[in-house]
Structure formats: C-alpha cells, structure tokens
Write a structure and sequence with these properties.
This protein has about 80 residues and is mostly helical. It contains two helices and no strands. The protein is elongated, with a radius of gyration of 21 Å. The N and C termini lie far apart (about 75 Å).
Length: about 80
C-alpha cells in the first residue's frame, strides 16, 4: 500500500500576487520598482524627503531645496 505522506501537495503555478504594486508616495500611480517606490520617489526616500510610508517628511520644504541644490551641482 502506498503511504500518503510520500505525496507532495500540488501547488498551482498560475497564482497572481494580489499585493498592490504601486508606488507608496502620496498621489503617485506609477509602478513600484524598488522598496515599494517608483524610481523618482525612491530617490526622494533615500534623500529623506518622504518616509517609508510615502508621506512627506516634517521638514520637506527645507530638504527639497537642499535636494534641488545638490542635483544642480551634480548636473
């Protein structure tokens, strides 16, 4: 007699993730690429402009001006 413990459970290969794959930044509808953010907002996240929840930092204006100045120097 065959033992049922030898059989592996069947896992379907056509499963679609229902997780939201959109950027977490407020008002952004782009697809997320890295760390639940689109490319632009990931750069903002790394600069500290937005939190990991996608909300603006408390001192967003000050940080944004610094961010723009640093981008202007690099270009």
């Amino acid at each position: 007699m065959a033992d049922k413990s030898d059989k592996k459970p069947i896992v379907p290969n056509n499963v679609i993730s229902l997780a939201d794959s959109r950027c977490q930044a407020e008002g952004c509808k782009a697809k997320s690429k890295r760390a639940s953010f689109c490319d632009e907002h990931f750069e903002w996240f790394k600069a500290g402009l937005i939190t990991k929840d996608g909300k603006q930092a408390s001192d967003f204006d000050k940080k944004y001006q610094h961010f723009l100045a640093s981008k202007k120097k690099a270009a």
